[in-house]
Amino acid sequence: MQKTRAAFKLSLRYCRQHEEVILADKLATNLMDKQFNKFWQNVRKQSNAKVAAKVNTVAGCVGDYEISDMWKKHILIFFITQLMMMGQSRHSCNVCQSSTNNMADM
After folding, report:
1. pTM confidence score
2. How would residue 85 be classed by pLDDT, with cut points 50, 70 and 90?
3. Closest listed residue to residue 36, CA positions, set 47, 27, 48, 24
4. Where are the domains positioned within the chain?
5. Cα–Cα distance, 72 to 60 (Å, whole number)
6. Dmax (CA) of the chain
7. What is the mean pLDDT of the chain?
8. Per residue in 40-50, is it b (16+ CB within 10 Å) or e — as a string?
9. Distance (Å, rounded) from C-alpha 96 to C-alpha 103?
10. What is the pLDDT of residue 53?
């Protein structure tokens, strides 16, 4: 039992140290055998394993409400500046008036 445990640990250590090489060989084998579905499944598994499901922080804002509020302010400011650059009066544009009112509430 001691020999089998040692052999297992040795094999496990080898796999951990050569994980990237083993995965690359697996992808190459799938391509060589023209198993394109398996190839793309393995690519998807490898690339998705490192990606977070959801972004938690954007520009110092944490959580869904704060992030959406930050983008709302950003877009309103951008929209207002674009209207002003086009030469439209803030008082003649209904959207602009409601936007400035919303900005005052923020």
Report:
1. 0.40
2. confident
3. 27
4. 2-48, 57-105
5. 15
6. 86
7. 78
8. eebeeeeeeee
9. 10
10. 58
